[in-house]
Amino acid sequence: MRDYDTLISRINNISGIQPLVIGRLEPDYPIYMISCGAGDKKIVLSSGIHGDEPAGVEAILRFLEGDGDGRSEGIQRWEKEYRFTVFPCTNPTGYERGTRENACGVDLNRRFGSEGPPEEVAIIQRSLEGRQFAIYMDFHEDTDGEGFYLYEVLHEEKDHLAEEIIETISHQYPIDLRDRIDGFPNCGGVICPQRDGEEFPFKEVDLPLPLYLYLRGVRHCFTIESPTRLPMEDRVGMHLMALEAVLNRYALL
């Protein structure tokens, strides 16, 4: 089992950032939101909706922390370009137990927009209500994954940049080239149902957070997937590289 108290300590010791407790499941399980940056481009980052996918949580923490010795500024590099809203771990009880579901046995991933959602989902929805963002990135892992891949949904096709991310990642890490993933065509590591003419198999309720936000106006949503079969450091590296690729691209717009 992982220690959520250690994660809490790391969050509360990030220099220059004031974390906000937006809700508690129990006294020992606060859910955090971090807001920082003064840029015009608003971006949301989240990880840990599945508790057995810790690489995304670790990647976000490292991005927030920097590397501590001045070689990598992490989030501080981007504070003039972006305004960040970050949810470092959205399923703390699952994270601590190392389970996909929360402590009540509920998979939180496709419960956004539902009536009577789990408390974790309700806390996040309340925190995002009425707010608009340009970009959302959700960090996941895939137990069946053979390499890195991503989902992309967007409102304007001209902004499509998934292939650029894949190209960047491919210089250092393997790409998942299975023909189909979760029933969708996989185009060299990119799953983009809109571009491929596929229908989303979801209603307006019981949505994963990326689609929930996309349907509420977020212009560009990514779900990043690393393969759990690779070492933790490689998975974290994939997430950080993908995040830097997106930030670099949007900084030019």
CATH T-level topology: Aminopeptidase
How many domains?
1
Report the sheet-strand fraction.
Answer: 15-25%
- Low-confidence runs: none
Radius of gyration: 17 Å
CATH architecture: 3-Layer(aba) Sandwich
The CATH C-level class name: Alpha Beta
Distance between the termini: 43 Å
Q: What class would the helix/strand composition place it in?
A: alpha/beta
Name the shape in a single word. Answer: globular
Number of helices: 7
The neighbouring-strand order within the major sheet is: 1-2-4-3-5-10-6-9
The percent of residues in helical segments reads: 25-40%
- CATH homologous superfamily identity: Zn peptidases
Overall average pLDDT:
91
Report the strand count: 10
Largest sheet entry:
8 strands, mixed
Ordered list of secondary-structure elements with their pairings:
Blueprint: H1 4-12, E1 19-24, E2 30-36, E3 41-47, H2 54-65, E4 82-87, H3 92-97, H4 119-128, E5 135-142, E6 149-154, H5 162-170, E7 180-181, E8 184-185, E9 190-191, H6 209-214, E10 220-227, H7 232-251
Parallel strand pairs: 3-4, 3-5, 5-10, 6-9
Antiparallel strand pairs: 1-2, 2-4, 6-10, 7-8
Helix pairs in contact: 2-7, 5-7
Characterize the structure shown.
The strands form 2 sheets. The protein has an 8-stranded mixed sheet with strand order 1-2-4-3-5-10-6-9. Strands 7-8 form a two-stranded antiparallel sheet. It has a single domain (4-251), classed as 3-Layer(aba) Sandwich (Aminopeptidase), CATH 3.40.630.10. The protein has helices at 4-12, 54-65, 92-97, 119-128, 162-170, 209-214, 232-251, and strands at 19-24, 30-36, 41-47, 82-87, 135-142, 149-154, 180-181, 184-185, 190-191, 220-227. Helix 2 packs across helix 7 (232-251) and helix 5 crosses helix 7. Helix content is 28%, strand content 21%. Strand 1 and strand 2 form a beta hairpin. It has 253 residues and is α/β, with parallel strands linked by helices. The chain has 7 helices and 10 strands.
